[in-house]
Amino acid sequence: MKISTRGQYSLEALLCLATATSEKPYSIHTIAEKTHISDGYLEQLFIPLKKAGYVSGSRGVQGGYRLAKDPKEIVAYQVLDLMETSLHTIPCLNGEECTKSNICESKVVWTDVESSIEKVMRSVTLADLMETYNSFQGDSAE
Amino acid sequence: MKISTKGRYGVRFLIDVAEQGMDTHTTLSEISKRQNISSAYLGQIAGSLKRAGYIRSIKGSNGGFTLAKPPHEIQLREVLHSLEGDLTIVDPPISTEEESLYRRAIRIGLYQKIDEAVAQTLEVMTLDSLLRHGRLLHSVHNVAALRSQ
């Protein structure tokens, strides 16, 4: 039961752009330096993130990215649903057929676990994460 | 984001053994047949469940597995912890790796909240609550089957 690095890095890159302090868009190199994620990996992540309208910008040496949406409207669940292969915990909840589905005693465990995960993911926006990030300012210098 | 077969099959193993009753011993091949899971794999899972103290086994012609404690004392959170290891939504930060402030913010603002929610969900579940839920499902299923005849 894990969120992959792809999902984690996507949230980190978005939070980096959301908390950008300069007027100029951030270059891939700047984002890489700040997030400790490689340039190549970031380029890959920004393709679907741009397509889905979370970021705007361009690839390449002269390129740069900025957030394209209000952070209050960027919900963790939507980003993870876009970037992760599946948010389901077990195959039968991911649409795979199972003959025992109607009488399965253990399914309730996984549906309840999944719905508690989903509920939190749907309640947290990028704006909330910015608030947590901003609360660090002052405790340590980076 | 997945629960491994070990975790899923382990829960089914315990439900199956519990359904046979506290005084009945059931064999690996019987469980394998009912659950449609290979007995070699079930054998490995049985080893983990036995070490964690959920089941015990008796050798001999009437031998097999039985629960080592009553179903209401078997908490799902503990079972999954012993089968799956930690149940966190992301791997804990590696101490040698420097955690960016972004990552830390997301860990506190999202991942820890998810972990707490999952723990709360599992905390209230016991093998007994699953068995009661299962009986309900079976009776609903049987009523539906009768009606469609």
Keywords:
heterodimer, A: 142 residues, mainly alpha, two-stranded antiparallel sheet, 6 helices, 50% helix, B: 149 residues, Arc Repressor Mutant, subunit A, 5% strand
Uncertain residue segments of chain B:
none
The percent range for strand residues of chain A is under 5%
Number of helices of chain B: 6
For the secondary structure, the number of strands of chain A is 2
Here the CATH topology of chain B equals Arc Repressor Mutant, subunit A
Radius of gyration of chain B: 19 Å
- For the record, the CATH architecture of the domain at 5-87 and 125-136 in chain A stands as Orthogonal Bundle
What CATH first level of the domain at 5-87 and 125-136 in chain A would be assigned?
Answer: Mainly Alpha
CATH topology of the domain at 5-87 and 125-136 in chain A: Arc Repressor Mutant, subunit A
Question: What do we call the CATH homologous superfamily of chain B?
Answer: Winged helix-like DNA-binding domain superfamily/Winged helix DNA-binding domain
Number of helices of chain A: 6
**Cα-based radius of gyration of chain A, to the nearest Å:** 18 Å
Largest Cβ-defined interface: A-B, 45 and 41 residues
Mean pLDDT of chain A: 90
Question: How does this structure look, described?
Answer:
The complex is a heterodimer of chains A (142) and B (149). With 142 residues, chain A is mainly α. In chain A, 35% of the residues are buried. The model of chain A has no long low-confidence stretch (mean pLDDT 90). In chain A, α1 crosses α4 (76-83). Chain A has 6 helices and 2 strands, in the order αααββααα. Chain A is elongated, with a radius of gyration of 18 Å. The longest helix of chain A has 17 residues, at 107-123. A two-stranded antiparallel ribbon of chain A has the order 1-2. Chain A has a domain at 5-87 and 125-136: Winged helix-like DNA-binding domain superfamily/Winged helix DNA-binding domain (Arc Repressor Mutant, subunit A, Orthogonal Bundle). Chain B has 149 residues and is mainly alpha-helical. Chain B has a single domain (5-86, 120-147), classed as Winged helix-like DNA-binding domain superfamily/Winged helix DNA-binding domain (Arc Repressor Mutant, subunit A, Orthogonal Bundle), CATH 1.10.10.10. Chain B has 6 helices and 2 strands. In chain B, a hairpin with a 5-residue loop joins β1 and β2. Chain B is globular, with a radius of gyration of 19 Å. The model of chain B has no long low-confidence stretch (mean pLDDT 90). Classes of the chains: A mainly alpha (142), B mainly alpha (149). The interface between A and B is large, with 45 and 41 residues.
